[in-house]
Amino acid sequence: MTTMSNTRRGLPLTSSRIEKIFPKLTPAQIDRIAAHGRIRSVQPGEVLIEQGDTSVPFFVVITGELEIVRPFDAYETLVTVHGSGEFTGEVNMLSGRRSFFRARATKPGKVIELDHQQMLTLVQTDAELSDILMRAFILRRVELIAAGVGDIILIGSTYCASTLRIKEFLMRNGHPYSYIDLECDPDVQNLLDSFKISASEIPVLICRGQLALRNPSNQQIADCLGFNESVDQTHVRDLVVIGAGPSGLAAAVYGASEGLDVLVLETSSPGGQAGSSSKIENYLGFPTGITGQELAARAYLQAQKFGAHMLIAKATRLICDRKPYVIEFENGARISTRTVVIATGAQYRKLPLENLSRFEGAGVYYGATFVEAQLCGGEEVIVVGGGNSAGQAAVFLAQTAKRVYMLVRSAGLAASMSRYLIRRIENSPTITLRPQTEIVALEGDNHLNSAYWRNGRTGQTEKHEISHIFVMTGADPNTHWLNGCMALDSKGFIKTGPDLLPEDLGAAGWPLTRPPYLLETSLPGVFAVGDVRGGSIKRVASAVGEGSIAISFIHKVLQE
Ligand SMILES: Cc1cc2nc3c(=O)[nH]c(=O)nc-3n(C[C@H](O)[C@H](O)[C@H](O)COP(=O)(O)OP(=O)(O)OC[C@H]3O[C@@H](n4cnc5c(N)ncnc54)[C@H](O)[C@@H]3O)c2cc1C
């Protein structure tokens, strides 16, 4: 870790790109920003942003100095100090979510102030400044995540499935947090005592030093962090996108950038299945590959830059017998919209084992990201499945695991996996392929410690002392919540465009003289894109393509 130069006070940085993280704006750039907002004086001690404020203003220092601090209890940690020509903010500046920090003037001076909307207009209209600001915001967030400095503390245990779930939720939402492990940190008891929490109640999330949530659900975490607060849920939207995987994010980026009023609903975190991919190597434009999470984070930011709003909430019902359509959430709240893009993807298939749920997150995982790889470094692991996602996971885990056993039901990989991955698996000395083999039993107490697998050809069963299994065996569509609103195929995927037969349209009561557009379902103005659509190609690029294409037809529907 390189520390900041002597001239800069605050947290140490992991990156040497200090001039990109804290760029100094030129007088011409400052003048252009000033044209969007107002110039005002500040006095020493004046708090310009308080921790927890939403839709906070953006400040550029003309003269004087602003310090950014993280308050906790009676203490403050200095995050950074902005001098003249520098500006405040990180990724929350675009989303309008709560500020992690307090911003305070330390000297008399002058600043430019832009409110949240003026700030969005600036990044949407000034390409040069958009580049500088967006890059700085992203790099600052990366530094906060690396330093574990945000507005929350997670107290948990490495051996606890719920701790892993919360860590993944925070990581995939790009939210920085400090982590204290019950097993390793001697001072944890003092902290638990101060919030009157017993060790048996972990994992515990402490929000802004005040609220202690015991084993919170994803929705409770989202509420506590104010993820949904900056979104107006009362007016009728042009478009609601349900699901923030690659297809939903693409629809959000294209919709918002083309002037539509877009709201995205996502159950857990942006990225969908792609977000759990350790490395996507076949997506156009990334010759050295990109992690699913990085791709998702960039797309999410891009959607926000163009003004799309995001709610962390699960859609549980589409009310389709009236217009505008109404979408109901898990907590009973409702939102109205003229058009809908369903981008809810598919859900992982599970192993048919009686005690599986006991080990989910405690030895059985459905994604192979950096978080899981850290848990099993130097150990033997199993990857189940013969598709591309299983292949990627095996290759990724082979970098840190002692051995990766790849179990596939078929006789080999050729039919189900891309050639480049098969070659890597064949060339990896750490990966052992076991064809025609299935897991038949799991054993363990709080954590998985053994797996039994059976060879279908010989009928032989073997026991292996292995504590980590990655299940990558395909997925079923997330369409159960649609309640008969539209035609589905025999496997539950949504039928669209030319796949809708006259009898499908008849049964659905298609009311228009025109046939459904490409990607339109049997419900006018409701589109389905990506993995949830019948006949879709299960790839990131096709999902992104479909999400983007749907927008051009939504413009037509909105004009009808
Ligand atoms: C581990 C792994 C690796 C992969 N690697 C590659 C690769 O290298 N290259 C490639 O091209 N493809 C890859 N794929 C496939 C690719 O990720 C998918 O085809 C793609 O993610 C599909 O995108 P989607 O937006 O249609 O759906 P998804 O990615 O499945 O996203 C759907 C989203 O909808 C949300 N959702 C579901 N129900 C609701 C609801 N009721 N309310 C609100 N939100 C909801 C989910 O939480 C999810 O975030 C991989 C898949 C996996 C699992």
Structure overview:
A hairpin with a 4-residue loop joins strand 16 and strand 17. The longest helix has 21 residues. 28% of the residues lie in helices and 25% in strands. It contains 16 helices and 28 strands. With 560 residues, the chain is α/β, with parallel strands linked by helices. Helix 4 crosses helix 5, helix 9 crosses helix 16 and helix 13 runs parallel beside helix 14. The structure holds flavin-adenine dinucleotide. Flavin-adenine dinucleotide binds next to helix 9, strand 13, helix 13 and helix 16.
Computed over alpha carbons, the radius of gyration is 25 Å
* List of distinct ligands in this structure: flavin-adenine dinucleotide
Mean pLDDT: 91
Shape: globular
Instruction: Please give the share of residues in helix.
Output: 25-40%
Unreliable residue stretches: 1-6
Distance between the termini: 58 Å
Described by strand count, sense and barrel closure, the largest sheet is: 7 strands, mixed
| Alpha-beta classification | alpha/beta
Give the number of helices.
16
The total beta strand count reads 28
- Which percent range describes the beta-strand content? 15-25%
How would you summarize the topology of this molecule?
Elements: H1 18-21, H2 27-34, E1 38-42, E2 47-49, E3 58-63, E4 66-72, E5 75-82, H3 92-95, E6 102-105, E7 109-114, H4 116-125, H5 127-147, E8 152-156, H6 161-172, E9 178-181, H7 188-194, E10 204-207, E11 211-214, H8 218-224, E12 237-242, H9 246-257, E13 262-266, H10 292-305, E14 309-312, E15 315-319, E16 325-329, E17 334-342, E18 346-348, H11 356-359, E19 364-365, H12 370-375, E20 380-384, H13 388-397, E21 403-407, H14 419-427, E22 431-434, E23 437-444, E24 448-455, E25 461-464, E26 469-471, E27 475-477, H15 502-508, E28 526-528, H16 540-559
Parallel strand pairs: 8-9, 12-13, 12-17, 13-14, 17-28, 19-26, 20-21, 20-26, 21-22
Antiparallel strand pairs: 1-7, 2-6, 3-7, 4-5, 4-6, 8-10, 10-11, 15-16, 16-17, 18-27, 23-24, 24-25
Helix pairs in contact: 4-5, 9-10, 9-16, 13-14
The structure holds flavin-adenine dinucleotide.
Flavin-adenine dinucleotide binds next to helix 9, strand 13, helix 13 and helix 16.
